[in-house]
Each structure stands twice: as C-alpha cells, then as structure tokens.
Fold Circularly permuted type 2 ATP-grasp protein.
Amino acid sequence: MTRTFDEMNGEDGVLRDAYRSVKPWLDTNSLDQLKQRSREAEMLFRRVGITFAVYGDNSAEERIIPFDIVPRVLTAAEWKSMSAGLEQRVRALNLFLADIYGAGEILRAGIVPEALVYQNTYFRPEMVGIKVPHGIYTPVCGIDIVRVDADTFYVLEDNLRTPSGVSYMLENREVTMRLLPDLTSEHAIQPVEQYPNELLATLQSIAPATASREPTVVILTPGSFNSAFYEHSFLADRLGVELVEGRDLFVRDNRVYMRTTEGPKQVDVIYRRLDDDFLDPLAFRPDSVLGVPGLIAACRSGTVTVANAMGTGVADDKAVYTYVPDIIRFYLGEEPILNNVPTWRCREPEALAYVLDNLPDLVVKMVSGSGGYGMLVGPAATKEQIEDFRAKLKSEPDEFIAQPTLALSTCPTFTESGIAPRHVDLRPFVLYGSRGIRTVPGGLTRVALKEGSLVVNSSQGGGTKDTWVLDR
C-alpha cells in the first residue's frame, strides 16, 4: 500500500523544515485552547457572512465553510518550483485557446484530436476569428494541485472559466492573523492581501485599445442566488468596482454600457462570474435573462474585454487535460515543470478495457464535471455504485477519464479529539495580464475533514486552511 506523505512529520520522525515553529506551538496549546480558537474563527466567519450554497440541498440554502485553524506551510523553495510550473502551464493553455479559435495548428499537427475540440461541449464556434484584446484568454486561473511526496506535485485539474475560492484565501489569512498572532509573529509569511489590487491591475491591463481613459471594470454576477455570490460581492468591494447583473448592462452600437443614475457609462472590461451559456441570449441560450444581449457582437468589434474569454472551457475539459504536457511542448518547446496525474482516456478502447477491469481501484470523473460531482472513488464506493459507473462507461466512454487513487499528502488539522492528519489539495491563483503573469503566493488549501476521505470539495463536506509560503 502506498504510504501517505505527511507534510509535517518525516518518516524518520524528524520534523520537516516548514513546520519547525508550528509543531511546538501545537504542543503548547491544549485541546481546550484550540477548541476556543476554532469557535472564535467560526464566529468571525459568521459575522463576516462568508457563505456558500449547495445546489440541490433543501435543508439549508447557505452554509459557513468549515475553517481549520492550523495553517498549511510551504517553504520558499517548494513554492518557487510550483509557481514556475503554474505560470508555464497557463501560458501554454492560453496559446492553445488562441490557436483553436484561430489557425488550429495544433489540430493540424495531430497533437490534439480535432473531435476533442470541435465536438467539445465548451467549444464556442461564435468565438472563432474574434481577436481577444492583447491575446489573453485566461487572465484569472485556478489550478488544482496535489502532493504525493516531498518532491512531487501533480496538477489535478485546470480551472479556466470562472475559478472561485479567492475570497476564502483572503479571509482565511485575515482570521489567522487575528486569532494566531503568537504563531504568525514567528514566521516571515509572504502576503496575499495584495491580490485585489493585482487583480484590478490585471483586468485594467487587458482593456481594449479603444479604452483611452482609465478602463471601467465591472463584475458580472448571476445574482444573489448563485452559490458564489458572496465572493462576487466581496471582490467588487475590494476592487472598488461595480457589481452588476445582466439587466444593468446593455449594448448600443456594439459597445457595452452600464446604467447609472448619471446616464449610460461605457464598460471596457467585464469580469464575468457566470457560464458561457447565459452570457448572451442572442448567441447562446435564448431563454437566459442573466446575460447581455449583443455581448458577442461587442466582443467581435473589439470594444469590450470579457474575462475570462468565452469558450475557455475547452482548455479545462478533463479529456483535454490529458494532452496539456504535449500542449506545453508544442507551444513553448519546454518540458512540463509540473506533471499531470497519470490518466486513462476512456474514449480509447485499450484504456477503457483497463478501467473496466480495475474500477474498484480507480477514480473515474466526467470530463465536464466539477465540484466533486459526477465522479466515482472506487475504493470508497459500494458494489452498486461501481456497477452503475460500469454501465455509464460502456454507454458513453467519451464522457469519462480515470485516474489512480492517489495517496494525497496530509497536513496537521484540528479535530474534536485533537490534532490529526487530513488529506489536502491546493488551488493557487494565477493572474495573466498584458504586463506579465503572476501567481499569488499560497492559494486556497482545501482539506478533507472526514478521516480517510480524499474528497476536499466544500460541497462534499470539505473545509479550508490558510496557506503560508515562507520567505525562506
């Protein structure tokens, strides 16, 4: 059986460098003291109102996301390697999107199958030939990372459409600094609080060339019933920009305007937080009341930037994910710094046969799934669930990929009975503007609070941690 990598404790009992000050702090705080700090953290989150909704759950529309008071700590060296890999990956995926909506060179070269792109649910023919301002399709990315040993970080998936979670990253740091001054004072921690300023600067930098004044940026939300609405309003407040719904915007002469009490005001950049289907009822779903009629025409005219660009979902499809190492080699001429998790494409007969023979040992995911939904964790599944997925795989193999059940690394986590290891992943946030690319040091650590669980999604019972990147 594969040994789980403990990020705090080495196999030989020697404390790892990143936790040299954390472990003594944990040892000097009693269980009652840790419980008190945990209760105070929950109270602060409730006071702030940071919530999320779970679709299909009628028992409670919104919940406070569980927060673990024990931070996850990475060294400067670990972060340097990881961030270089993240930035390499985002550059390559951006070039891939520009190519498939343009010349299609990677498809003609046979590196990525045409059918995987042109028949993809998230491919938008309406975007073909549209020149995205500054050529940047993915200014805001959240790349999910898992760790399996001291030196190996895998990319689990790419989130290039409307990646969420940055508000939790920022609030986690604020709560930690407030509640744990005795611990934070002992560390030189790289800051994350500059993220809103960097996000605004990134969005302004990709405004169309027609924006001669200081670009007007808005955040477009589906509304208060969306599961991530707290984050939308949080970011609008931190960036100092307007939070708008589709009804607040209109298109005239292929330009987007915002309705204000002083009359129409032209909008240059829309940081959209709703899916492609709902953005423009004239181009996509005609029954959508959330979007802006004529938005695609404005994009085609080059008078507005939509971030992230429509059609970016092709590049974070879980089947396309399997080709990202080849995408990096094709566009950048470099070897990937960060590797993918080994993956079987069920669309391929040989891979499908292997997956069907080994279902109890694998994790199976829908290529368009997210949030922990539409997946099978073989070792934790019942016989009925396995057979159900077997039938799905046989009927629609193109819709699934499979991966080994990784022994995700663990971090010390507060539980009702004391400190215990729990499995974690990490979502760092990468900003890509016309002035360069930057990864915020840390990101959002998600933790599986149930003992033995590998599912970290908040919708599936997971929580979050503050993530520290040390200066040295």
Remarks:
- The chain has a mean pLDDT of 92.
